[in-house]
Specification:
With about 180 residues, this protein is mainly α. About 85% of the residues lie in helices and about 0% in strands.
Length: about 180
């Protein structure tokens, strides 16, 4: 009895309602502590007969059910397509953001490299040396506060959006009706 109920995907409460008994009585029946009343036993027999008939002669799917399933499939395809487009758009935006971050970092590194090159050859007693030192400090501070974690987070988000896009497209392709 328990195997039948679980195979059909019913909870004890649901199956008890179908058989017209209380859940505690049904629980006792499942454990073998009590017998089902005749009315409940008759309903159980009808269920088993229905399942046996359906096993031998599967019924054709209801047209209304097929239409509802098709409508749900189309809606899911539409949502997955929209999600793929949204993820692609976000991925493009993040890719541009990541590129700008990397360009800015490279620009700061080059400025520092050039400043340090000329700082080495400048006389420490000149205004040029003082200005180059000031520029170097500003660049070092900017590089120190430049958040490399931001680059990694953006790269991670980008990869996640690429994954979402691929997954949505994969699921969309699975929902397409198969040609027979």
């Amino acid at each position: 009895m328990k195997n039948l109920r679980k195979t059909l995907g019913f909870t004890q409460e649901e199956f008890a309602v179908i058989l017209g008994v209380s859940r505690p009585l049904f629980n006792m029946y499942e454990r073998g502590r009590r017998s089902l009343p005749p009315g409940a036993f008759e309903k159980l027999s009808k269920i088993q007969l229905l399942l046996a008939e359906n096993e031998q002669h599967p019924s054709a799917p209801c047209k209304k059910l097929m239409a509802i399933q098709q409508k749900h499939r189309q809606r899911a395809q539409h949502l997955l397509q929209a999600q793929a487009k949204k993820s692609a758009s976000k991925a493009m935006r993040l890719s541009m953001q990541l590129s700008k971050l990397r360009q800015k970092l490279k620009q700061l590194e080059n400025k520092l490299l050039i400043t340090q090159l000329f700082l080495k050859s400048a006389n420490p007693k000149t205004t040029e040396w003082k200005l180059l030192t000031l520029i170097e400090r500003q660049l070092l501070y900017t590089l120190d506060t430049f958040n490399p974690g931001g680059e990694f987070i953006t790269a991670y988000k980008l990869s996640m959006h690429h994954f979402e896009q691929q997954h949505a497209m994969h699921m969309h392709s699975k929902l397409k009706p198969k040609n027979r």
